[in-house]
Amino acid sequence: MDKFIVTAAITGSIHTPTMSPYLPITPRQIADEAVRAYEAGAAVAHIHVRNPETGQPVPDIELFREVITDIKSRCNMVLCLTTGGGAGMTVEERGRVVPTFKPELASLNFGSLNFALFPVVDMFEEFKYPWEKFYLEWSEDYIFPNTFKTLREFSQLFAENDTKPELEIYDLGMVNNVAFMLQQQKENLKQPVYLQFVLGILGGAPPTPETLMFLHNTARAMIGDFVWSVCAAGRHQLPLCTMALIMGGNVRVGMEDSLYAGKGVMATSNADQVEKIVAIGRQLSREPATPDEARQILGLKGLDKVNW
Fold first, then answer.
1. CB distance 15 to 36 below 8 Å
2. Is 263 exposed, middle or buried (0-12, 13-18, 19+ CB in 10 A)?
3. Which domain range does residue 266 map to?
4. Whether pLDDT at 243 is above 70
5. How far is Cα 108 from Cα 146, in angstroms, rounded to an integer?
6. Are 155 and 96 in contact (CB under 8 A)?
7. CATH of the domain at 167
């Protein structure tokens, strides 16, 4: 495709306030960052929310409402709401945004894995908030649960609310999960599915070109037709997103995945990373899709059919 979708993952649930003074925390900061990313060329914003007092990831529906209403009042971005949430949230808490807001797009993590953040604790002598160190250390004994029962229930929930699932693929087994669920949930999970290959999480697939090609080729063999994107953790973000552009895919950047906009250059905004990947795409003769072009590529229902 000549056009490519840029998703900006605005704040996520991985990084903590101590790691960057630019990490958006409050609803207004998150909304402002989404709009800046839109102005830089992002068609989609991936939305998590945080406690505005402490920066801790939370499943608070009213905070989601505040963020997405603010963004919608200022631009026509596609908003992809998280159902991954943050460590320790229940499946019910994670999924609540779908029936509440009926978004055009929401993430659907397609298998369980060890989701480990604990090695970064040793990089900091002290933390700004007490919850941060515990949150990171706790991940050493954490399994991010996405069972087949969860996949079945979420697939049904998404279908009932006409929300397109963005299937998050952290390793090869999750490609197999998609192939299986396409057979088992034909009425709820329909092709072409939208896959996002997530690389570089400790507990998931390593962030290498060989991994990306293997995942992509295996998905083609097992699933057939699909639309796809890549996001990669930390310093691997721009190199692997560039590879995705070369391969004809779409990309996700943003401060959920990396706090930097180049080697040794801390991002002061999500827009810094969007600008970088848009410039790279144009060097490869590809243009960023507008929100409405992204809706057409992904087969979304339209902003007029959301519930906010």
1. no
2. exposed
3. 3-305
4. yes
5. 9
6. no
7. 3.20.20.70
Q: How many CB atoms lie within 10 A of CB 283?
A: 10
pLDDT in tens, 200-209: 999 999 999 9
**Residue 128: how many CA atoms within 13 Å on its side-chain side?**
12
End-to-end CA distance of the chain: 32
Cβ proximity of 252 and 233 under 8 Å: no
Calpha distance 244→148 (Å, rounded): 29
Q: How far, CA to CA in Å, does 291 sit from each of 100, 113, 158, 306?
A: 22, 32, 21, 15
Q: What is the pLDDT of residue 46?
A: 98
Closest residue by Cα to residue 10 from 27, 18, 19: 27
Identify the three-state secondary structure at position 264: coil
Instruction: Return the residue matching tokens 């402490």.
Output: 54
* Amino acid code (one letter) for 175: V
Q: Are 8 and 273 in contact (CB under 8 A)?
A: yes
- Note the pLDDT of residue 150: 95
- Tell me the mean pLDDT in the region 228-257: 98
Band (pLDDT 50/70/90 cuts) for residue 129 is very high
Query: What's the domain count of the chain?
Result: 1
Angle between helices 27-40 and 270-283 (to 10 degrees): 20
Assign residue 177 a region: left if phi > 0, alpha if psi is -120 to 50, beta otherwise?
alpha
Type of residue numbered 56 = Q
pLDDT of residue 84: 86
Report, as an integer, the average pLDDT of 226-249: 98
Nearest to 260 by CA among 23, 65, 3, 96: 23
What is the C-alpha separation between 227 and 248, in angstroms, rounded? 10
* Residues present in the chain in total: 308
Q: What is the pTM of this model?
A: 0.97
For residue 62, with 0-12 CB atoms within 10 Å meaning exposed, 13-18 middle and 19 or more buried, which class applies? exposed
How does residue 1 score in pLDDT terms, banded at 50, 70 and 90? low
